[in-house]
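User: Here's a chain of 314 residues. Predict its fold as tokens.
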Amino acid sequence: MADKNRKRDKIFMDLKQLQYFVVCAQTGSFSDAAKNLYSTQPSVSKVIKGLEDTLGMQLFERLPRGIRLTVQGHKMYEYASKIINEVNVLENMASSGMTKWIRISLNPSSWFANQFVDFYNETYEKKYHFQVTTAGVQSVMERVRDYMDDIGFVYILSQQKENFLYELSKNKMHFEPIYETDVMLYPGGLTELYNSGKERAELEDLEGIRFIQNYQDEFFDIGAVKEDAFQWKDIDISVLTNSDYIMEKMLKNSKVANISGSYLSENKEGTTPGIPLDLGDSKVIFGFILHKGEAMDESVAELVEFLKSRLPKH
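Assistant: Prediction complete.
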């Protein structure tokens, strides 16, 4: 009996250990984790060492500059992240009664922002609470993978779809496309192409133009250097931002242009409605990321159906 009890002790973990482990994995540094946890570096190191001793495995490789997860640590992180986020949900429930939280991450999009406002107003009486985070595709993938968000909405170029789906499958997630649109050029109000009347733009039309883009992303890679990524020649990206407000102000009042999908055409004030950019069969795909095999929450499904109803009909 004593041996059995000792065996149980070996697998006992407390939430503090899991919380410290997750923050260390996310920051890649005991000292940075200590700052986030309002603790000290020796204390954090001690907690992680205790967790490793309890599990009987090494979770981190100690490097000259920081730490990184071992193979076993990656597996542990997958489960620990889910546990910590579920605990956060329980804490929210305890402090707010049965408040329903919908956690969303997405690529910056004025179109989505407009739809979100309408969805909030339409579901106001249901008393949903929302957490909305804008980020690049890679960050959205990671947030959904780590159960920080319930769903992630992204835009990818069709040329990146194969690599994108491969990355998702490695992390036990899947992508459901819900809309496909042309790649569009939006000339700023002070560019020569503004109100030019052109019905279609060619790559040559981009020469000499500076661009403002939502910050670069592995799966919407403008000016990519990798052979298997889509490339646009001589694109001069002078401003990278995740702010649609900055985007609209710059397009209205400066000599920059933007390349994105036609889903934004109604929102880019101070520009033409958008000129289709001839890039062969290239398309921009809009869709969402979820964990593979897990049922979508009813409130999240309601949001998805609402967005589908607002997308232009082909």
